[in-house]
């Protein structure tokens, strides 16, 4: 199909499609004549994925490019694909940067304790450890150390959700499809969970008021 | 204290502190002499909050400014403060933009069904409704309609977490403090939950492999 049809079917303006191609988010169409490119169903699917990452997931172009690169260089198992996805995603808003000056070692120790208590085996370099430690240090620096009493309940919720996530990702027959589903759902599932948390907060507050 | 001490105590470079003042994230210090400003404990606290929103929460400067403005014009009840916070936060990465062309009405109906089934009373204009609808439409457009089977389990997790969130926010004595805690924890709690989800995904995948 020509770029006009790709635009109409995806709802994405042609100029935006060209921008995605320049940014390496979408493979170029095949040249048929000078100044004319032909796109196929794979482009349409990839375009939907790009929109999911950018618009629904709120990822940066750079992070989306890293996530999409995983699809073009597939992992050898769903577990390895998931590890790659977690690392690719950690570029966005997860780095502790200049967090509270002394909190980090103590907060990381707190994360290790939680993992040990739950029997969760997680590699030492997993980026979510630092993300969680930064969040803990932040809560403490703002005088909300009591929020850490919520960690166990949060971990229960996360574990229930993760079991369902893994069922979903490993359902399909092929490894490539399984990895694509894992990528998409890791990002989209975050949005689902935070949206539901907001809705539930509102509902609980209304019920209690 | 002078800016050097504020920088040392917060771990934030002086140039960054000046940038936050220019961007309206931090009130200016009081002028003592030409070219010299004096900061106090309230500045230090606000600076930690700004870092929490930007670095841990991953919010944009514009969204952080909207969130902080709520503190300077406090709501009359925790419920109203929470509503303001949810709206302020929805500027970041939550808008559906050009989502899948036909999914929106059907997806919003799906959200309404879920809310009704759970007895959650949520205002029609709450931004998380559109966020959830966009996520649902995206999953469907990518051939992952089966992910919607996970919504109920996700909603269970979100409700458990929201009950704990409300307990935490309404614990303090004063309304101002309650609203600040609600703001901070809404943002930081999202990061805690997504970090724990990643860690749990890894742990579950390792256990199953």
Structure keywords:
homodimer, 209 residues, mainly alpha, two-stranded antiparallel ribbon, 9 helices, 3% strand
Set out the fold topology.
The structure is a homodimer of 209-residue chains.
Chain A: H1 3-10, H2 14-22, E1 30-33, E2 36-38, H3 41-56, H4 61-72, H5 78-89, H6 103-118, H7 127-141, H8 151-170, H9 175-208
Antiparallel strand pairs in A: 1-2
Helix pairs in contact in A: 3-9, 4-5, 5-9, 6-7, 8-9
Question: How do you describe this structure in short?
Answer:
The structure is a homodimer of 209-residue chains. Chain A is mainly alpha-helical and 209 residues long.
Can you put this structure into words, describing what you see?
Two copies of one chain form a homodimer. The first copy, chain A, starts with a helix and ends with a helix. The first copy, chain A, is mostly helical and 209 residues long. Chain A has a two-stranded antiparallel sheet with strand order 1-2. The first copy, chain A, has helices spanning 3-10, 14-22, 41-56, 61-72, 78-89, 103-118, 127-141, 151-170, 175-208, and strands spanning 30-33, 36-38. Residues 93-103 of chain A have low confidence and may be disordered. The first copy, chain A, is elongated, with a radius of gyration of 20 Å. The longest helix of chain A has 34 residues, at 175-208. Chains A and B meet through helix 3, helix 5, helix 7, helix 8 and helix 9 of A and helix 3, helix 5, helix 7, helix 8 and helix 9 of B.
